[in-house]
Amino acid sequence: MSPDRLTATFAALADPTRRAILTRLAAGEASVTELAKPFAMSLPAVSKHLKVLERAGLIARGREAQWRPCRLDPGPLRGAAEWLDSYRRFWEEGIDRLDDYLRSLQMKGKKHARKKN
């Protein structure tokens, strides 16, 4: 995934309204009106959010007669997940080291308690 595409994806995901819209679209296509229902905002405001998502490639808009459904396009999410996954090893190794350290402290504590008794 190109850095510009990744930046657009994360910028689009930075807003909780847009994340909620993507969550809704994961369940299936929806119109702008349907997407706007749970939010206390105007249709033009929701449309602006949809434009950000569309520019990031996270949604696609179709045309079926007078109905213009929006649907999720998971491709950029996959790219973002792959990028984040590259850091998973770093975090897992750090957690493993912390776990080892905590176990060693527990063992020292048990040894110290036995010496007192």
How much is the radius of gyration in Å? Answer: 23 Å
Number of helices: 6
With strands numbered from the N-terminus, the spatial order across the biggest sheet is: 1-2
What is the general shape? elongated
Contiguous low-pLDDT stretches (5 residues minimum) are none
Helix content: 55-70%
Order of helices and strands: HHHHEEHH
Summarize this entry quickly:
This protein is mainly alpha-helical and 117 residues long. The protein has helices at 3-13, 16-25, 32-36, 43-55, 75-85, 88-116, and strands at residues 59-61, 70-72.
Explained architecture:
It is a single chain. The longest helix has 29 residues. By secondary structure, the protein is mainly alpha-helical. The protein is built from 6 helices and 2 strands, in the order H-H-H-H-E-E-H-H. 14% of the residues are buried. The chain has a two-stranded antiparallel ribbon. The radius of gyration is 23 Å and the shape is elongated.
Write the layout of secondary structure elements.
Layout: H1 3-13, H2 16-25, H3 32-36, H4 43-55, E1 59-61, E2 70-72, H5 75-85, H6 88-116
Antiparallel strand pairs: 1-2
Helix pairs in contact: 1-4, 1-5
Structure characteristics:
single chain, mainly alpha, two-stranded antiparallel sheet, 2 strands
